User: Which sequence fits this backbone?
């Protein structure tokens, strides 16, 4: 039952992420990528704060007191990896289109099991590898990439995908040691906001009048993606390990295509349908194969 709840949390998380791509892209019409990220994650920080006070205020001292150094060793990489992943993804949207960004971001799916296998020597279920392959090929069909040449923006997305993969891995380790999903989301949002603001000071101009023009996009990306979705990711990864979790989260490409079809009236072509089917197949294989084999034993 716990695994089913975790799976539902991850699916809802990816649904939000899939629809946030449009807000991320249009949210830079009047402000720079670092300003957008800084304000967006500060809104996420404020959105999560009441839930920390309501549900985890008493748990925080007792949980962290047992292993404070371990919490810091895992929390700092989580915040830094999320900061780097979102910076590369956000800046890439200035140089490439949403379709390419969505496709190259999905490369965190194969990166997660590769990093786990080679750096952490963890054994993976055989179903992970064909599932990863199905998700990457599905992402290609889903994105309708017509240009063979890799542009500068696509390279930035690929670098960001490495940090998305590391973020997923370290989130899994952190949330299994410390049952504080709201507090972890609270801290990581604050870290990303502060680090992004440092880049604003160095490279951009912090202009409130221009930020106001992007209010809707910032609120959507901040409250739903930065707040709700990252909390759901933490709840989801409590009972689903990093590699299959990454495969589930590749559904964001499917949700992006479906939301564009419903909201923007963009027609789903044959390639889009094939892509959705391959990703859904990969997700189902990664989740059901271990269960079926366990039942046979």
Assistant:
């Amino acid at each position: 039952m716990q695994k089913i709840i975790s799976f539902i949390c991850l699916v809802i998380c990816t649904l939000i992420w899939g629809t946030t791509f449009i807000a991320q892209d249009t949210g830079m019409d009047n402000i720079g990528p670092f300003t957008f990220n800084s304000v967006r994650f500060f809104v996420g920080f404020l959105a999560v704060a009441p839930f920390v006070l309501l549900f985890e205020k008493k748990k925080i001292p007792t949980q962290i007191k047992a292993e404070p150094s371990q919490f810091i060793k895992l929390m700092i990489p989580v915040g830094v990896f999320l900061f780097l992943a979102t910076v590369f993804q956000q800046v890439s949207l200035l140089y490439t289109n949403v379709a390419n960004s969505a496709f190259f971001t999905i490369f965190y799916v194969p990166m997660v099991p590769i990093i786990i296998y080679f750096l952490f020597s963890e054994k993976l279920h055989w179903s992970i590898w064909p599932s990863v392959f199905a998700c990457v090929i599905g992402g290609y069909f889903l994105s309708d990439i017509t240009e063979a040449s890799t542009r500068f923006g696509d390279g930035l997305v690929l670098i960001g995908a490495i940090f998305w993969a590391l973020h997923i891995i370290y989130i899994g380790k952190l949330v299994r040691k410390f049952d504080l999903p709201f507090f972890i989301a609270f801290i990581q949002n604050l870290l990303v906001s502060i680090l992004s603001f440092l880049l604003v000071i160095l490279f951009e101009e912090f202009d409130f009048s221009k930020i106001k023009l992007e209010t809707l996009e910032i609120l959507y990306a901040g409250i739903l993606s930065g707040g709700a979705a990252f909390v759901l990711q933490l709840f989801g990864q409590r009972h689903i390990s990093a590699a299959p979790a990454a495969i589930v989260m590749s559904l964001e490409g499917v949700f992006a295509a479906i939301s564009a079809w419903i909201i923007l009236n963009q027609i789903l072509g044959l390639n889009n349908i094939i892509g959705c089917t391959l990703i859904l197949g990969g997700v189902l294989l990664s989740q059901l194969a271990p269960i079926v084999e366990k039942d046979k034993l």
Notes: The mean pLDDT is 85.
